[in-house]
Here is the input.
Amino acid sequence: MTIFKELSDSVKDSFNAELPEKNSLAEYLDLILPSIKNWGEDINETQFYSSAGGKPWLEIRDGDNFNSTIMHFFNDNGEYLRSTNGDILKGRWRLLPDTNKIIIEAGASELYDLSYLDDNFFILSKSGATGFRKYFVMGKEKLCRGITWREYVDLIFKVYSNQSGKTKWLRQLFIALILLAILAVFFFR
Here is the structure.
């Protein structure tokens, strides 16, 4: 009967999706991004992060001393604006052709790779960076204003949960069919 218990536990586990406890935003993103990356958009689909009038992206960080409001705007024609507590820094942004890379020039020039993009989340990783400042994390202002970085992680994890939920019923159906087949073999011997 242990096979029935293992299959039963497998079915139960397929209904439960929880994030393990991590200490930083980067650790959570390292865990989540590989699972959701394929559901995101491509950096060349600029309508997801840029618009003529400006599309506000709120920066999310996990530092204990981070209490600034930093907004990023990737406007048409390569105009980049960063507002830190209302103080504006102007710059430029541009895409590198045939890559998922963006260069942001605002004082210094920085190269980023796209990690994830959709209507609500815009996550870049600094090319070659590791550790604490590996990711440049932004969320749609209306969605992310006033939330903590842990709440941001919960929101993006819901993307994973919703997307995996769409295929989860197939996995559960397959497991149920296996259980029925095993039961049929035992009962019809």
Q: What stands out?
A: The mean pLDDT is 82. Helices lie at 2-15, 25-36, 141-144, 149-187. The chain has four helices and nine strands.
